[in-house]
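INFO batch 0412 | record 1 of 1 | parsing
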Amino acid sequence: MKVIGLTGGIGSGKTTILKWFETQNIPCFESDAVAKTLLNSSLKSRVSKIFGNNIYNSLGILNRKKLAARVFNNPKELTKLNVIVHPAVESAFEDFKQKHKEDSIIIKEAAILFESGGYKNCDAIILVIASKESRIQRVLKRDKIKKKDIEARIRLQWSDDKKKVLSDYLIQNEYLQTALDQANKILNSLLNS
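INFO prediction complete | emitting tokens
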């Protein structure tokens, strides 16, 4: 089995590309979605202990905006969160790999695949990129957060130039159909190598 890392900065369109791989019957592990689930279940008590009970609403659901405002403006707080979340997500990925050990390739999506060091455990890396302006506009539309908050998140992630050096494949995602055509070529290459 080959583990293919899929990454890209906020708003690059990596989740859209991941969903396309799923339509091609490729097992896909979405780290961000798994982290969200874990934060509202098995990690809740640890997160509450560090960030306070008011980080969850009265129904026990994480207030993501409140947590984001706290961690994306404070690298030390972000590190505290990552120390809790990353090992749990990695454990979930190991379980995912076991369930799909008969598959020839699986995709592991992670926004901070390089920053976390997770890329070292991948057989190949696909990097999804888009212009900063496109990324900001996508996130403004999708998440309804302030431009300055998006820019703060972008600053916390590695630059595309730094990621390109460590990537095996590149998808330029300014226009969806062009990006999907690129993804299709990459998939054919992976399946035939």
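INFO post-check: The CA atoms of residues 72 and 156 lie 8 Å apart.
INFO record closed
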